[in-house]
Amino acid sequence: MGKATDHVLDAIDIETFLICNSAEEGRKLAERLLVEMNLPRGDVVFLEHSGPGARVRLRAYIHHPGDHYLWLEDGGK
Question: For residue 33, is pLDDT > 90?
Answer without folding.
Answer: yes
